[in-house]
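User: Hey, quick favor. My workstation is busy. Could you predict this chain's structure for me?
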Amino acid sequence: MVDITNKNFDDIMELFDFYFKFRPHDYQKKFFKACFNTKRLAGKWCRQSGKSHSVAVYVLFKALTTPNITIILIAPTQNQSKELYNKIRFIVESHQFINSSVVKSTETELRYNNKSRIISLPCGPHGHTIRGYTADIVVLEEAGIMKDEIVNSVIIPMLASKGDEGQLIKIGTPLIRNHFYRSCYEDPEFEVINVTWKDCVRAGQYTQSFIDEQQRNSSDIEFKTEYEAEFIDDIMSFFPVALLDNAKSSYPMVEII
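Assistant: No problem, here it is.
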């Protein structure tokens, strides 16, 4: 296990480099600092800016350095939850020191010899399959497309027994004005880390020519949501966003023979 007693933020960033071979961009450092200092965090990031990798490094670090905690990763679908979870497993399996601390590794759970664990779950269309879990840290991947009723009635209660110590992290690209929007703009308990294409170009994550190409080939709404990390306004939509959200429904896949 990694002892972080009395280590400051710069020391922890050095540990990220040493153990994970990861040197974060400035905007990722801002995100990590918020992770270590707040219990309610919303990451409103543009596409392919490294948000999932940043969260993967953070939760893995917390699991390795904090005994007996449960971290739950939740995404709308199985594939989305598995994508973030697999990033964590790849980091673990790529480093012998970290991998040696794993006592259980399955498709949905990593358990460490300090009794901490990371669990990956899809919430599905109704959230029925994730009821009953308790967590110290909950991460909502693609929070922008997760239904309000699932977040409020199923996910938030996972932290209830932890009092003020339970941490909730919402990350995603903004879409409709749901719970994620309120966390970003209306709830004073949430610290918001906003990352746009400009941050990514400055950091070298994108090139300016790539952004120019995306502007030419995308609609205004697509570019604003995907790269400027802005929520869709009703004024920009033919139908009101709330109406579109209420009209959504999920159906099981039917195999065609």
